Amino acid sequence: MVYLIAEVGVNHRGDYNLALEHLRAAKKAGADAVKFQAFRATELASADYAKDQLDFFAEVELTFPELGKLYEEAQKLEIVFLGTPFDTEAVDFLNELPVPAFKVSSGDLTNHLLLSYIARTQKPIYLSTGMSNIGEIVDAIGVCRRNGNQDITVLHCVSLYPTPPEQANLLAIRTLKEALDLPVGYSDHTVGIEACLAAVALGATVIEKHFVLDRSRKGPDVELSATPEEFTELRSGIDRIYEELGDGNKIPRPGEIEVAQIARRSLFTAHDVKKGEVLTPDLLTCHRPGSGIPASQYTEIVGHRVIRDVPAGEMLLWDMLEGV
Q1: Which CATH topology does 3-245 take?
Q2: Global pTM?
């Protein structure tokens, strides 16, 4: 199956009750996991160099105790609670809850200090790769592995909010799978659900989609977030596409053998053929059904003699031929 994560992000606007509504709605909409960001604004942005960011994150910050209560509610609802930590204390807090895995934001892919700390928890890592190239991704994976963590899923991501369709670059999913030999998913910032569905068709094993109760609310991620109705549609579409992908083996599917008996063609006589006469191309034709000598074996019967008279339009069978 494809693992579907509802990313609440900052759509709760720092309001615990609104965050709780998002969690419950994500469960109802079919998410496998709901994800919140764990940060303290003062540890995330510099007051001297990024005052605007500091002020924004201070406004939308959930406290660790509030995140703890959300975790407890997630356990009751039987939905996985995931977190993106932005500092080491957030890592410790989430680890002690305990979350089953960590999401690393695209902005922290090159933050090797934090990445090392997360890796040492030995929990699975979902590594977002927005703004990065293959070299930076390989370096981040190396940091995780040097700290004893091999359980890494790489998420293709484009850090544009929203991401224009022509910038989604979904074929990078294939590139990452081939280059890294790791599970690859997709963290989506486009408007709508089409890119997520296409990502599944390209082999994504994890989909992360921003989630909002409704688009009347303000926030930087609202436009690119899925509403509960859209998320439900996304869940249904993902499950159907995953089922349709199959196992990749190009062999007849169950039931196709019976269809082949009807839809394929067999070799027939185009004219009357006398006993002992040699079959030549002009004496043969092909018709349905496919229950006789397959049309693909045309060259194998040319040159053989028939052992009895065969009228025009009769299906040829092996026991009509001499020496086979």
Answers
A1: TIM Barrel (3.20.20)
A2: 0.91
